[in-house]
Amino acid sequence: MKLNIGCISGDGIGPEIVREAKKVLDAIAVKYGHEISYTEILLGGASIDVHGVPLTQEAIQAAKESDAVLMGSIGGDANTSPWYQLPPDRRPEAGLLAIRKELGLFANLRPAVLYEELADACPLKKETSEAGFDLLIMRELTGGLYFGERRTTVENGLRTAVDTLVYNENEIRRIAVKAFDIARKRRGKVTSVDKANVLDSSRLWRAVVNEVAKDYPDVELSHMLVDNCAMQLVKDPAQFDVILTENMFGDILSDEASMVTGSIGMLASASLNDTKFGLYEPSHGSAPDIAGKDIANPIATILSAAMMLRYSFDLDKEADDIERAVKQVLKEGFRTADIMPEGGKASGENKCSCSEMGSRIAERI
Ligand code: IPM
Ligand code: MG
Asked: Which of 10, 105, 146, 166 has the fewest C-beta atoms under 10 angstroms from its C-beta?
């Protein structure tokens, strides 16, 4: 198969982790006889440095011409990077939001799985980590507070800021359908998370999700308030299968879900529209503090590449192969710094750099 992959290396640790994911993809191409071509696409700070803006029309076009896009991470240190001297709509993150919107990527899938091999790194009680968990956050990605009207003004002499949380029923329905569809292929459970005891947008959310549920009598639906969900994720994550939620809640809960897996460096994500196209990126950020040191964990990006093969190319066998290779390397005891067990040797033979981790996984394909 010919795979046209757009590549957004981005900022911070982005280029390092994307390089490792490409190593693994290249190993897959050799083993299974695929042909991969990569097109570099600038986004975020990397685009600001060249073009003065975080996203150009050419970048959007290049993404649209790709079958799928693999991304590292964007953004820098807000306290020191000159990118953050720019107005908010010209900063790196604005480019990411704009490309999500331009490509209509309304469904963000963030699986959080506790690998047996990493149970030691899980900060939860031993009984909880031993039981393991495997959940998926289905986060709405192109609506809500992120895209509502916002402004900062002076009202009666006071600096005043407004952000607006807007959803229409179609936006809720299409993400709910995605959540129910995927729950059918998993354990058949959807927990819809909202703040319906306070917000109108959440009350509409709940009503529309209930309507969609009627078409899925085989899927069990429950509703949970977001504050309770934050608590339940650390108390008993195994209760969840698919968590369906709006943009901002999903942003926050997915960081929490990733940390209970042991490290945010393990969490992949897929952002999908209604076609086979998708943008695949780790759930973590650009970690500017460790950029260029070859110590980042490339696994979330490698697992994002596996999601890309699965969702955009229907290459399930190849995706399984990547996931198996990741598990194998973990089983063999290799760890990047973020997933070294506490008290683990600071420079033991199993501690590996970002590039070593990528090479080891690629070698096991
Ligand atoms: C994420 C990130 C982004 C978001 C930022 C970088 C704008 O935190 O993908 O979770 O909030 O969506
Ligand atoms: Mg986030």
From this structure: 166
User: Is residue 282 a contact partner of residue 269, using CB atoms and an 8 Å limit?
Assistant: yes
Cα angle value 111/273/211 (rounded, 5°) = 80
Pocket test for ligand 1, best of 251, 267, 301 (most atoms within 8 A of CB): 251
Q: Which whole number is the average pLDDT over 101-130?
A: 90
Distance (Å, whole) CA 252 – CA 11: 22
CB 141 within 8 A of CB 177: no
User: CA neighbours within 13 Å on the CB side: how many for 159?
Assistant: 1
Residue (of 289, 255, 361) closest to 26 by Cα position = 361
User: Quick check: CB of 281 below 6 Å from ligand 1?
Assistant: no
Task: Give the SS3 label for residue 282.
Answer: coil
Overall size of the chain counted in residues? 365
Question: pLDDT digits over 28-76, tens only?
Answer: 999 999 999 999 999 999 999 999 999 999 999 999 999 999 999 999 9
Q: Which of these, 312, 258, 283, lies nearest to 36 by C-alpha position?
A: 312
Amino acid at 134: D
Nearest Cα residue to atom 12 of ligand 1: 251
Q: What is the rounded CA–CA span in Å between residue 242 and residue 238? A: 11
pTM of the full predicted structure? 0.94
From 74, 81, 96, 267, mutation site for ligand 1 pocket: most ligand atoms within 8 A of C-beta: 96
- 251 an active-site residue? yes
Which tokens go with 293? 């040191």
What is the average pLDDT across 110-122?
A: 87
pLDDT band at 131 (very low <50, low <70, confident <90, very high): confident
Token pair in block for residue 346: 């600071």
Residue bearing the bigger pLDDT, 351 or 207:
207
The pair of three-digit structure tokens given for residue 364, joined into one six-digit string: 């096991």
